[in-house]
Amino acid sequence: MQQPGDGANHAKRIELAVSGKFDGMEIDSAVRTSWSRCLGSYLLDPLQVKKPQVVERRELESRREALGAVMQIARIEMLNLARQMQNSECGIMLTDADGVILCYVGDPAFTTVARRSGFREGAVWSERELGTNGMGTCLMTQRPIKIDRVDHFLLQNTQLTCSAAPIFDGRGNAIAALDISGCSSAAQSHTLVLVDLAAQNIENRALLAVCRQYHVMRFHPHAEFVSTIGEGVIAFDESGAIAGVNRSALSLLGHRDHDALIGRNVDTVFDIGVCGLQHWSSNGVFRPEVIVTRSGHLQVFATVQSPVRHPARTAASRTTATDAHGAPTDALDALRSGDAGVDANIQIARRVLDRDISVLLLGETGSGKGHFAKALHASSRRADKPFVSVNCAAIPELLIESELFGYRPGAFTGAARQGHCGRILQANGGTLFLDEIGDMRLSLQARLLTVIEDREVLPLGASKPVPVDIRIVSATHRVPGDMIADGLFREDLYYRLNGVTLTMPALRDRSDVAAVIRRIVQMEAGPERRVQVDDRLIQRLLTLDWPGNIRQLRNTLRTMLALSEGDALGLEDLDQTAMLGLGPHARSHDTATAPPPVTVTAADVGREQEDILASAECDALKRTLEACRWNVSVAAVRLHVSRKTMYRMMHRHGLVRRSAGDPTMHESDLTRGVPG
Q: Using alpha carbons only, what angle is made at residue 334 by residues 328 and 339, rounded to the nearest 5 degrees?
């Protein structure tokens, strides 16, 4: 075996392994791939001597604060690990997602080596900076890994043995890494298992801490293992939408990644209605109860904890921003960015904020109707109560009645044994947002009118109505007057829904687009990343029509951020991604900022643009479907469209799943159409 310090042999070994010619001892594929990145992407030299970069104290504190509950929980877990590893001459480190060491706990006997190796708080141990190493390579691979001595890329680190495991948040993002490093020539084989268990314990406890405002289900096939490290944890909101899960939940339910559960309704996973689970939590039932998965293949014991509500925080929760003078503002004021139309809507909405007056939002698709409805709820006295959103166009026609009004056990064939309370009852005390109300069929409009008039709902199969206290906000991109004239919408329901009617201005008609762009970029980048937007890019974006409005702009900027390697967005980033989001109506409003003319015909330009758009949309659609393992419902949620729209897009591009071995085929191969 090669000994640490043998520089020529170390460099030669890496070169041969990366080129595929090394025929000596077996090298882990993750290590070989990491070496390849070090040579090809980072341009590192295995024999160079590098001191780790160290961030400034202020930045270090900022990074610690960004981890929130994880930081406090990890410190306790690291001290427990240190007691278990006593006299082992090693150091225990926690890094953030960028490989910056945020916390260090070490054996005093390891202090000298730790200082010489660069193990200190604030040091950057990313793979890009210091080559293959436990912390950096763990974050790159997002799996537990052991980097043993000569597995390190840099010769200077080959005296170390590092075992590291990633720490994930409830949505599957690797937010930190836990590492144990030492100089023992006979590293203990259980160290990697120990650090991985500690990492899972940290993320489990952190998930419970950050999801206190959600209902939290804790479950396991054996009742005695509920509330242990092996339990599954699922956090869901008042409507039943899953907001966070831990790795044990994925493993127990047979899923590989978080995307398989995030966004789904909990009653599609377990054979029990959302109201039944909420009943457990509201009654303080802490003894594990038996439930089965929807497939019936797994029986588990589960408890459900109700959200922690702090009355003292209710008013504070409405404060989401400050104005130019530092005065607190609520969620509605946070929408202000200088456009007169938006400001007028906010002013009118504020006058009816806590009155029993329905609000109807009109505007093109993607113009922010849903976002405005949420802000209206968050600024009202109902802010600590449920906000339940129903997309009337997305729910299948046969299911919308049971989804809205609920049903009693045995109300119809296929009904859940526990029944279903329905979205209206889920919103009791809070706000019911009826999106795309114009697509609701007339018979349901009559029942909805009864709910609004009588303030009670009659579930399917029930003989007695249930009183409800809800604020109704509805939205549509259609023109209500035209629908009424065509007999598609009840006039009496319209008059009950439009107590106040607000029209959301199209993005192209707003005067605050530049401010909206900067706000979206910062929101999508997150608090840990500060992204500068070049003024030339903003000017170019201002020349476009944005037929998809804010939703289209957000998706375009999100893609640009994902593909950008730095902390700045410029025109070159638009060249790579903008066509994914810009429709065929894109045009220039400002000839001074438009590109210089080219000597082609208008027909040529139109054909070329249509081809580019079609190809880009097809590629983006295919990538999303593959990422969601061809689950159309999950893909629709990720793309913010309805399932019906997803099927239309798939049909337009000839995309359909054929078999596990050949997941796609094009329109020329189709023998049956995709549902539209």
A: 125
Q: Is 3.30.450.40 the CATH classification of the domain at 33-207?
A: yes
Task: Name the burial class of residue 573, with classes exposed (0-12), middle (13-18) and buried (19+) by CB atoms within 10 angstroms of its CB.
Answer: buried
Q: Which CATH class is domain 603-669?
A: mainly alpha
Are 376 and 353 within 8 A, CB to CB?
yes
Do 531 and 521 meet the contact criterion of CB atoms below 8 Å apart? Answer: yes
Q: Which residue has the higher pLDDT, 285 or 396?
A: 396
Give domain 328-502's CATH number out of 3.40.50.300, 3.40.50.150, 3.40.50.720, 3.10.20.600. 3.40.50.300
Which value, to the nearest 10 degrees, does the dihedral of the CA atoms of residues 52, 56, 57, 61 take?
-90
Amino acid (one-letter) located at 155: L
Q: What is the pLDDT averaged over residues 474-489?
A: 90
Query: Phi/psi zone of residue 466: left (φ > 0), alpha (ψ -120 to 50 degrees), beta?
Result: beta
What pLDDT shows up at residue 286?
61
pLDDT tens track for 142-163: 999 999 999 999 999 999 999 9
3 state DSSP class of 675: coil
Chain CA centroid to CA 24, Å:
44
Residue type, 511: S
Instruction: State the Cα–Cα distance between residues 372 and 380, nearest whole angstrom.
Output: 12
- The string of pLDDT tens digits covering residues 530-542 is 888 888 888 988 8
What was the pLDDT predicted at 589? 44
- DSSP codes joined into one string, 279-346: HHHHTT--S-EEEEBTTSS-EEEEEEEPP---HHHHHHHTEEEE-TTS-EEETTGGG-SS-HHHHHHH
Q: Are strands 471-476 and 359-362 parallel, antiparallel or unpaired?
A: parallel
Question: Does residue 578 contact residue 556 with C-beta atoms inside 8 Å?
Answer: yes
The phi, psi pair for 379, rounded to 5°, reads -95, -5
pLDDT recorded at residue 608:
43
d(CA 353, CA 349): 6
Q: What is the 3-state secondary structure (H, E, C) of 437-456?
A: HHHCCHHHHHHHHHHHHHCE
How long, in residues, is the chain?
Answer: 676
Mean pLDDT value across residues 64-70: 90
328-502 and 508-595 in the same fold: no
Q: Phi/psi of residue 673, each to 5°? A: -75, 155
- Beta-bridged to residue 569, according to DSSP, are 533
**β partners of residue 432:** 388, 472
